[in-house]
Design brief:
The protein has 485 residues and is of the alpha+beta class. Among the domains are: 3-77; 306-428 and 466-484, no CATH class. The protein is 40% helix and 19% strand. It has helices spanning 3-28, 35-77, 82-89, 134-152, 160-168, 174-178, 192-205, 208-211, 274-299, 312-316, 340-348, 364-378, 383-391, 422-425, and strands at 213-216, 221-229, 248-255, 257-266, 327-329, 359-362, 394-395, 398-402, 414-420, 426-439, 443-444, 447-448, 454-467, 479-484. The protein has a 6-stranded mixed sheet. A hairpin with a 2-residue loop joins β7 (394-395) and β8. α4 (134-152) packs across α5, α4 (134-152) packs across α9 and α7 packs across α9. The termini are far apart.
Length: 485
């Protein structure tokens, strides 16, 4: 369906939902509404909101496409900026390849030294037939970062070979070179080819993206319906009216929040060390972002430190430990006092619908100091099983995920381990991919970059995390928790 046709269809659906809600409200003015009618009105209002968000997203896409078309048209008619032309045209072979023309596969020059193993990137499965090896990926990302640094700090760096490489190999085009002049901000995005590796790194370093339900956000906000209660079956006597019930939904709302990683780096950037530079930069940005995502998911208390996100522990605190079936109180006040029935009871209270695919979440210290000794004490564990457990941590057949944001030492109170289907309890909104910027003229923590011969490296992304289903004092949710007394 074309965009204009889809827009018209959505508008028609929205008008129909508004009229239906109006009709129900009009009927309610003369007589009181039944619970089913009230729920029906709420559902229609939620549908109106959702359709409105979809229409706004389509309108935003139209606006972005129109702006992009205008920029492309202006680029066709206007000469290249003199400063960029100097970079592009200086020396032989500096211009970009003509459309449709291909270039022979490049090779990493011998001068691009690698001093350590590349860990930030992995080989493509088709590396032998046109894909990139891990080293080649690190080299390409490093060349992009150096070219971006030369654009962000033209008075400090002129990595002409990096700019040439990026232009000739489709990494960095005119859009990226516009930098701050790009009103949409798209010129600052890390090129798409590196996005998969950066996301993989964040998933390896953290658990939030692995455990939660990750939802792409086409606008700054996203609202999804959530089932809160379902239909009920009743026995009906002969000649008696059937008893009705209603599906009840509420809404899960995500609002994108900007998360930034800012640090300083030695100003001794060199095209000879581009592989190590690319690998280190990608790893550090991804690790810092993944750590903050995990902190928001687990420890978020609604303050600005966590982007006003309320995480799992904060939501469990809204229920009563020992009373809520999903918020268990362990034996004793230390890790050493925990017994195996504390954990098996935790497993037993996970709702049946959340048992398939459930996972434990704890620190590696808790697993090896508490869970493994409890299994060993139970007997029947062979050396092979212990060795296999080191490679794939499990407890009674249930996978164990590690996050060092969880407690790493015994404490007299607090959640030690959680269990369940985190994707059923938590939505992770991903608004836009990572950006990258460099500066040498700013102050970082009151330190002058210029005076101390440093550069600032800043990456940012926009996300939100909503822990929407944690259970209550009477019903366990899809995630349950065990805390020391």
């Amino acid at each position: 369906m074309k965009r204009t046709e889809k827009m018209t269809d959505l508008q028609n659906q929205r008008h129909a939902a508004i009229e239906a809600a109006d009709a129900l409200l009009a009927a309610g003015k003369n007589e009181s509404l039944t619970p089913a009618e009230t729920a029906d009105i709420d559902q229609k209002l939620a549908l109106v909101d959702d359709l409105g968000n979809q229409i706004s997203a389509l309108a935003e896409q139209d606006s972005q496409m129109a702006a992009a078309a205008a920029r492309l048209d202006a680029q066709r008619k206007a000469p290249i900026d003199a400063a960029i032309a100097g970079i592009v045209n200086r020396g032989s072979g500096m211009s970009a390849m003509p459309p449709g023309q291909t270039k022979e596969r490049w090779t990493i020059p011998a001068t691009a030294r690698r001093h350590s193993k590349v860990t930030a990137f992995i080989d493509d499965k088709n590396a032998n037939s046109g894909g990139y090896t891990a080293e080649e990926k690190a080299y390409r990302f490093g060349q992009y970062a150096l070219a971006k640094a030369s654009v962000d700090m033209p008075g400090t760096y002129r990595f002409e070979n990096s700019t040439k490489f990026c232009r000739e190999n489709g990494i960095m085009n005119a859009t990226h070179l516009e930098g701050a002049g790009d009103s949409t901000g798209s010129g600052l995005f890390v090129p798409e080819e590196f996005g998969t590796d950066l996301i993989r790194l964040r998933e390896e370093f953290g658990v939030a993206r692995q455990l939660c339900k990750v939802l792409p956000m086409s606008s700054d906000t996203r609202t999804d319906p959530r089932w809160s209660s379902g239909l009920t079956a009743y026995f009906t006597g002969e000649g008696s009216a059937a008893t009705s019930s209603s599906l009840v939904h509420d809404q899960v709302r995500l609002t994108a929040k900007k998360m930034t990683v800012l640090s300083t780096y030695s100003s001794e950037l060199s095209e000879d060390a581009v592989i190590d530079f690319g690998s280190t930069l990608a790893s550090e940005m991804a690790y810092a972002s993944a750590l903050k995502e995990d902190q928001c998911l687990i420890d978020g208390d609604g303050t600005s430190t966590y982007g006003h996100i309320r995480g799992l522990k904060s939501q469990f605190a809204t229920t009563t430990i020992g009373t809520a079936p999903g918020y268990r109180d362990a034996t004793g006040t230390t890790w050493g006092a925990i017994v195996i029935t504390d954990i098996t009871t935790l497993i037993s209270v996970v709702p049946v619908y959340a048992q398939q695919g459930m996972k434990f979440l704890c620190s590696s210290q808790f697993y090896y100091q508490v869970m493994v000794p409890l299994l060993n004490a139970a007997g029947g564990v062979t050396g092979t099983e212990l060795q296999e457990g080191f490679r794939r941590p499990m407890f009674q057949g249930i996978p164990v995920m590690f996050s060092q944001v969880m407690p790493i030492a015994t404490a007299t109170s607090g959640i030690m381990v959680m269990l369940g289907r985190f994707d059923l309890s938590t939505s992770f909104g991903d608004r836009r991919k990572m950006t990258l910027e460099f500066s040498k003229e700013a102050y970082v923590d009151s330190v002058s970059l210029f005076t101390n011969d440093l550069i600032a490296v800043k990456s940012s992304q926009r996300i939100d995390i909503n822990v929407h289903s944690i259970g209550s004092n009477t019903v366990a949710g899809p995630v349950v928790a065990l805390a020391t007394a």
